[in-house]
Amino acid sequence: MSRHSAQLTLEAQCALVRETACANRLGVESIALSRAHGRVLAEEPAHAPGDVPHDAGRFLIPATRLTPARIALAASRGHGQLKVARKPTVAVLTVSEGAIEPGLSPVANRLFGGARDLLVGLLRDDGLEPTCWPTLSEDERQIEIAVRDTACAFDMVLVCADMGPGYGLAASVIDRFGSVAFGSRGVDCDVPVVFASLDQAFVMLLRAEPAQLAGAYMTLVRSLSDGLQGIETARRQPRARLTGDLAFGTDARFAPVELAYTEAAVLEATPIDGTGFPALATCRALAVAPVRGALLRAGAVVDLLALNDPGLAE
């Protein structure tokens, strides 16, 4: 992949990731209808005895996800199996010098890490089953071994690191051994995401800050997993009107918001203080900044990413 400026817009980054992934889409497998929910249809099914001419093809469209209704349609036409895209295999690596593994005893002046669990939960919500490594220390050799080993065995490698030395070391490893499409060169940490190909995998380096991690997953990581399964179009994003000013943090693209409908059925978004796990756990969506660090005034219309509100999702 060719190198691009880190100043690409979020939309351009997502488009580049999706285009690259679609060009390297995964193989096809036949599965029973009982296991097809949420999978991406790879090929239009051949005609079955119960097919109505020119009917099923309008609804069983390749490169779309199989919903219960579409699976029921296939069953009603006599199809017992469908050809779907193989799910990408995913490795999750986390880099942190100070975080304590969940379940261990507290340590003074150190925090428990939750970034890996957030990432794993988002992946599982999308029907993917990641393989996780224990937290890596801020040691370049250890990071190099983990990244290069997983890149030989998985389709996607997601590296999550605290902003600081660990992020810089991970970026340096990816830059030295991978082909970087966008992100940082060397140890430049002032970049939200690094995207590269390395061996047989696509690698993404993500910031561990909760709101930015969730937002990067729902935009860039989903563009990658969708593209590998042959989905060429972006997911729909709902929009809402801000009830108050929303200041995104320095270099931030995502911020938690609460949602409510007015009596006129207009969706409104109210900013929530903070971007940590408490704010993330209570919000219904993330607002997307048009540019990093933006200040949006009350009344502005903002794009949303559904987080704790499945009704907003596509």
- Please work out how many helical segments DSSP would assign: 8
Query: Which overall shape is indicated by the principal axes computed on the Cα atoms?
Result: globular
| Average pLDDT figure | 87
The CATH H-level superfamily of the largest domain is MoaB/Mog-like domain
Total domain count: 3
Can you walk me through this structure?
There is one protein chain. Strands 4-3-5-8-7-6 form a 6-stranded mixed β-sheet, sandwiched between helices. Strands 9-12-11-13-15 form a 5-stranded mixed barrel. Strands 1-2 form a two-stranded antiparallel sheet. The chain is about 30% helix and about 25% strand. The protein is an alpha/beta fold. The protein is built from 8 helices and 15 strands. Residues about 185-190 have low confidence and may be disordered. About 40% of the residues are buried. The protein has helices at about 10-20, 55-60, 70-75, 115-125, 140-150, 165-175, 210-230, 275-280, and strands at about 30, 80-85, 90-95, 130, 155-160, 180, 195-200, 200-205, 240, 245, 255-260, 265-270, 285-290, 295, 300-305. The two termini are about 30 Å apart. It folds into 3 domains: about 10-25 and about 85-230, MoaB/Mog-like domain (Molybdenum Cofactor Biosythetic Enzyme, Chain A); about 30-85, Molybdopterin biosynthesis moea protein, domain 2; about 240-310, MoeA, C-terminal, domain IV (Beta-clip).
